[in-house]
Design goal:
The structure is a homodimer.
Chain A (H helix, E strand, L loop, with lengths): L2 H8 L3 H10 L17 H15 L4 H13 L4 H42 L13
Helix pairs in contact in A: 4-5
Chain A binds a DNA duplex (30 and 30 nucleotides) through helix 2.
Chain lengths: ~130, ~130
Amino acid sequence: MTIKEVCEQFDITPDTLRYYERVGVIPEVNRTKGGIRDYTEEDIKWVENAVCMRSAGVPVEMLIEYVKLFQEGDGTIKARRDLLVEARVEVQAQLDKYQSTMDRLNYKISRYEEAIKTGVLTWDNCESKKN
Amino acid sequence: MTIKEVCEQFDITPDTLRYYERVGVIPEVNRTKGGIRDYTEEDIKWVENAVCMRSAGVPVEMLIEYVKLFQEGDGTIKARRDLLVEARVEVQAQLDKYQSTMDRLNYKISRYEEAIKTGVLTWDNCESKKN
DNA sequence: ATACTACTTGGAGTTAACTCCAAGTCAATA
DNA sequence: TATTGACTTGGAGTTAACTCCAAGTAGTAT
């Protein structure tokens, strides 16, 4: 699979994909004799993982560390588990923040909808209410 | 309330708070005769809102736009509602990504826990499994 | 064989959101 | 009054994560 195809599949740019490989967010990718990247299923799984983790803000640094441990073999199982648990803590914390922001947005929007519908501003200052 | 106290309450730095005011993420803050910031309840509500929105990745640009509309008065109710709805779409999309990353992390961690517990690597390559 | 296109590399540039800094001011204490 | 310490400003610097670029090469269509 070419770099272009992989990019379309995950909606990222070739530059990003090459960057991920360069810094070690994914292991080195399979190449043709000519040196052109030819992604295997395995390579693509790594890309999928990286894209997913990055989309939730897991730092590039952490992904690099994980790949490094993975390549060192079975002796790093516990270390990898710990790294993932650490990542999970961060992701969960962010998730909670997003949820509370959603709650706030929903509240504010409902107040605005109400004002628009009734044509009356039913609050002194939307911003100064607890929500 | 002093800048220091507000910072402690929201766990941010004075520099960040001054930056928010400077670029317009929050309206201009109340001052003492000497020119020192003295946050009112109203000011603090704005800070609370900004911190919450920023923690969910709502861009500074959008918050600035919102404050600007707010200061223009009641004629901008619909525009403000639209802005908030736009923000909500983004936040929800991010929330979904975080959730699917959590699912992936939970799956991977459980595989690792299993391997650690049994002492047996029950998969060829943790990364190459669908999850 | 000759274009043409898509790929390759290392390195420089960009962006958003802070974060730090130097120089100056003010209120309270010694 | 002199010093201290926290505050003020505008502007420069930093950081993470890309994103772009110039120069070169490989595979494909004419």
